[in-house]
Write a structure and sequence with these properties.
The complex is a heterodimer of chains A (111) and B (76). Chain A is mainly alpha-helical and 111 residues long. Chain A is built from three helices and no strands. In chain B, 72% of the residues lie in helices and 0% in strands. Chain B has helices at 3-34, 41-63. Chain B: It is found in: Mitochondrion inner membrane.
Chain lengths: 111, 76
């Protein structure tokens, strides 16, 4: 009797866990529109540091305080784009200058 | 669409993409471990579906500016 019930119970548990995971994802707006998604991301980012602190207190560990790194991916990307484009716009002039310098150098070598 | 509005919409698209990719990945891992004997294909399916949902949301969001919405009055 128990041997027959066990696979059923296992299947029911698995379906319960999977269904619960899908429900949690749906309920927290992760599968909805783009506004809900970005709201959920903001909430998650705000909730992570206090959650880490609580877990550390629970385990009695003391993580070294993570320095507040002022890194903005948006700023880094924008400055990278500006740098590349300015280098590209200067490239022909620079190439011309380096060519004349190289020619002069070779001429002096050949003298 | 003004540049600022476009920038905001693209930011939302990126954030939404990250969220949906993560969710799809997570659900794919759950299903793979529970039902499909730790094969890789549910994970790929979940991530792909998540990315597809994000793409579709982004597409609708960008197109919505050019559509006439029901709550806008039509002047005669």
């Amino acid at each position: 009797m128990a041997a027959k019930l066990l696979p059923v119970v296992k299947l029911a548990t698995k379906v319960g866990i999977a269904g619960g995971a899908v429900y949690v994802a749906y309920d927290s707006g992760l599968l909805g529109g783009s506004e809900q998604g970005s709201e959920a991301l903001q909430k998650a980012r705000a909730a992570v540091p206090p959650a880490i602190e609580e877990w550390m207190k629970y385990f009695g560990l003391q993580l070294p305080t993570i320095p507040n790194i002022e890194f903005s991916p948006v700023q880094a990307w924008n400055s990278g784009v500006r740098w590349s484009i300015s280098r590209l716009s200067e490239a022909p002039t620079k190439a011309g200058e380096m060519t004349t310098q190289g020619v002069q150098y070779v001429r002096e070598l050949l003298k | 669409m003004s540049e600022r509005e476009l920038g905001r919409k693209l930011d939302r698209c990126l954030a939404d993409g990250v969220i949906k990719l993560g969710t799809g990945l997570g659900l794919g891992i759950v299903f793979s471990v529970l039902f499909f004997k730790r094969h890789t294909w549910p994970i790929s399916l979940g991530s792909g579906a998540g990315l597809g949902m994000a793409y579709s949301n982004c597409q609708n969001d960008l197109r919505s500016h050019y559509l006439l919405h029901r709550n806008q009055k039509v002047e005669r």
